């Protein structure tokens, strides 16, 4: 499949794979809100699996709205990372200096049902990207990883020294772990590589404008968009997967991080490439260091929205664990980054997005 391209070329660029998705789009916005150099360009590649494009529009809604918010143009290609030839043409057309790699399938529960699809998209797609990067002499990569690489935690909070790859509970987590191992081997084989793997905890929230946010296709796989859709009346009730975990109230505990804080972490990671002597593979947690249970999240969102959140307790979901939250001290030291937005901010911004856009981007 030949890539569909919009906009022209500029002197230097960051390639963002999966840049029309949830975290990718907020990161694109964060970069453009901070960058002022006239020769700077963002190039987004996305196959639109997790993004919406209105009929008759050339670009997905998230990208179109970011252009309006920042008054800057974004080069967009509809392309799957399995298309090595199409990806190579993008590298030929643009002067790409580094890559931020989000493109992946991302639902833990779904990955248990569709392991082959997850391995194909997340591992094969990443290998294709790395091959093309190497061919064009691009060796700087920020990778969208996950705290799922730690498996069932042996200790809390989880720091980057925690063993990875052991006791992994889902093909999604395994795919992220395998990609990290590939990247480590790559950095060992060739010292030109500079790779920062950002291990996310649980992204939630929305852009402060209320115009871009999480817009999953079908029934949400993650807690916050599910709660938001119940609050807005789009879904009748929330399913709580298990209340017999060894936690404060029996429901799963997670470290939730505002997506704008997460996006800011990527900006910091890109800037780290400019430091003299920086090289090799580095894994960094991005979280708040605080865990909240499902029931605590429901109560917080009810307070922020003023809406009731009906819920029903059901059985545990395959691939889930009892609790995880981050030790984020390395992100403070290495990236000079820390999360600043509160749980109340996360809920208020999610509600602003969902209430203004009850059908997600289709409401735009």
From TrEMBL:
This protein's pathway: Carbohydrate metabolism; galactose metabolism
Assigned keywords, A-Z: Carbohydrate metabolism, Galactose metabolism, Isomerase, NAD
A GO molecular function held by the record: UDP-glucose 4-epimerase activity
E.C. numbers: 5.1.3.2
Biological processes per GO annotation: galactose catabolic process via UDP-galactose, Leloir pathway
Classification via InterPro entries: Epimerase_deHydtase (IPR001509), NAD(P)-bd_dom_sf (IPR036291), UDP_G4E (IPR005886)
Catalytic activity: UDP-N-acetyl-alpha-D-glucosamine = UDP-N-acetyl-alpha-D-galactosamine; UDP-alpha-D-glucose = UDP-alpha-D-galactose
Necessary cofactors: NAD(+)
SUPFAM superfamilies, per database record: NAD(P)-binding Rossmann-fold domains (SSF51735)
Pfam families per the UniProt record, alphabetical: Epimerase (PF01370)
Domain NAD-dependent epimerase/dehydratase: 14-272
Signal peptide as annotated in the record: none
Residue ranges crossing the lipid bilayer per the database entry: none
GO cellular component, one term: cytosol
Subunit structure: Homodimer.
Similarity field: Belongs to the NAD(P)-dependent epimerase/dehydratase family.
Family matches, as NCBIfam families: galE (TIGR01179), PRK10675.1 (NF007956)
The protein's name: UDP-glucose 4-epimerase
């Amino acid at each position: 499949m030949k890539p569909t391209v919009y906009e022209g070329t500029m002197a230097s660029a960051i390639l963002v794979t999966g840049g029309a998705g949830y975290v990718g789009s907020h990161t694109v916005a964060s970069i453009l809100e901070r960058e002022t150099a006239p020769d700077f360009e963002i190039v987004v590649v996305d196959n639109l699996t997790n993004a919406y494009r209105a009929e008759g529009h050339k670009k997905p809604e998230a990208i179109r709205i970011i252009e309006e918010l920042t008054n800057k143009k974004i080069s967009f290609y509809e392309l799957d990372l399995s298309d090595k030839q199409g990806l190579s043409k993008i590298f030929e057309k643009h002067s790409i200096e580094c890559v931020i790699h989000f493109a992946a399938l991302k639902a833990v529960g779904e990955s248990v049902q569709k392991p082959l699809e997850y391995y194909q998209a997340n591992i094969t797609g990443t290998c294709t990207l790395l091959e093309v990067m190497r061919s064009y002499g691009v060796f700087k990569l920020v990778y969208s990883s996950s705290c799922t690489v730690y498996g069932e935690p042996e200790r809390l909070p989880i720091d980057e020294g925690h063993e990875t790859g052991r006791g992994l509970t889902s093909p999604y987590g395994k795919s992220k772990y395998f990609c990290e191992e590939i990247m480590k081997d790559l950095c060992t084989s060739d010292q030109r590589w500079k790779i920062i793997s950002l291990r996310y905890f649980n992204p939630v929230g929305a852009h402060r404008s209320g115009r871009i946010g999480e817009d999953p296709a079908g029934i949400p796989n993650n807690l916050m968009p599910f709660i938001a859709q119940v609050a807005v009346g789009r879904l009748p009730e929330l399913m709580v997967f298990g209340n017999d975990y060894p936690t404060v109230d029996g429901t799963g505990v997670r470290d939730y991080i505002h997506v704008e804080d997460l996006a800011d972490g990527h900006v910091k990671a890109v800037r780290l490439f400019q430091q003299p002597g920086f090289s090799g593979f580095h894994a960094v947690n991005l979280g708040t260091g605080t865990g909240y249970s499902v029931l605590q999240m429901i109560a917080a969102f009810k307070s922020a929205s003023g809406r009731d959140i009906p819920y029903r307790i059901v059985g545990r979901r395959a691939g889930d664990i009892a609790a995880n939250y981050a030790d984020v001290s390395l992100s403070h030291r290495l990236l000079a980054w820390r999360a600043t937005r509160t749980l109340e901010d996360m809920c208020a911004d999610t509600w602003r997005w969902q209430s203004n856009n009850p059908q997600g981007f289709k409401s735009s």
